[in-house]
Amino acid sequence: MRAGNSQESAEMQRRKLTGIGRNVVKKITGREEAGMDEREYYKRLAAAYLRGRAGRIGQSSTEEEEPKLYPFKRGHRELPRVRKVLGFLHAVQPESLLDVGSGRGVFLFPFLEEFPKTETVSIDVLPRRVEFLQDVNRGGITRLRAVQADLCGQPFPDGSFDVVTALEVLEHIPDVESAVRAAVRMARRYVVVTVPSKPDDNPEHIHLLTKERLTELFEAAGCRRLHFDGVPGHLFVAAPLGKEG
């Protein structure tokens, strides 16, 4: 009886979420709304996520059962470091991009919205983050692919992507030398990095990567020149490769 009730509940939730994904007229929190404001949310991406998530209701999952829509809010686009990277990429116009450690999509969702033709791959070491982005793919954003992988293992062949982005990532990685080498090898045109520029109290930040240290790392990986810029609290680095270098 309990199993039957569980299956019935899963089917009801699946129908509910599928309807939301099609119409984007409710929040998953259970509060009724007239709809999501296009000015506040990446509506198309949120709808895709809900459609993809609906297909997994009742299945084993590493993600919490209650889907959330806050990652799809447009406010992340206004973060200075995100604006800086997007502005640089508009000048580059990559045909393909690997985003390392996409997390909740703070950069990735604005990028997908502004670059609708770029083939995009996301890698993350956390299964729940990968599953979250796989839902977006299953819901219709097929040019996004999410893979559970470690950057240091270089999960793709040399020169697989026009651009590799590692935004707020390198400070977390113990073997940062291997991480930079792998990013450089997988990129054809540019590696783009942002890191915190000041010490903080985040226990997961195991490096403070200065301009001098980043220069050492990228030169050791074969980069001849680097472009540095500062945004509030962060350091932006673009490493040109191949013909760009």
The CATH architecture of the largest domain can be given as 3-Layer(aba) Sandwich
**Overall mean confidence score, pLDDT:** 86
Spatial order of the strands forming the largest sheet: 3-2-1-4-5-7-6
Strand content: 15-25%
Number of helices: 7
Overall geometric form: globular
**DSSP summary, beta strand count:** 7
Domain count: the total is 2
Output the CATH homologous superfamily of the largest domain: Vaccinia Virus protein VP39
Structural class: alpha/beta
Helix content: 25-40%
CATH class of the largest domain: Alpha Beta
Uncertain segments are: 22-34
Q: Give the radius of gyration.
A: 19 Å
CATH-derived topology of the largest domain: Rossmann fold
What is the string of helix and strand elements? HHHEHEHEEHEHEE
Give the CA-CA distance, first to last residue. 66 Å
Major β-sheet, in short? 7 strands, mixed
Q: Overview of this structure, please?
A:
The structure is a single chain. The protein is an alpha/beta fold and about 240 residues long. It has 2 domains: about 1-65, no CATH class; about 75-245, Vaccinia Virus protein VP39 (Rossmann fold). Helices cover about 35% and strands about 20% of the residues. It has 7 helices and 7 strands, in the order H-H-H-E-H-E-H-E-E-H-E-H-E-E. It has helices spanning about 1-25, 45-55, 80-90, 110-115, 125-140, 175-185, 210-220; strands at about 95-100, 120-125, 145-150, 160-165, 185-195, 225-230, 235-240. A 7-stranded mixed beta sheet has the order 3-2-1-4-5-7-6, with helices on both faces. Strand 2, helix 5 and strand 3 (about 145-150) form a beta-alpha-beta unit. Helix 2 (about 45-55) packs across helix 5 (about 125-140). The model is unreliable at about 20-35 (pLDDT under 50).
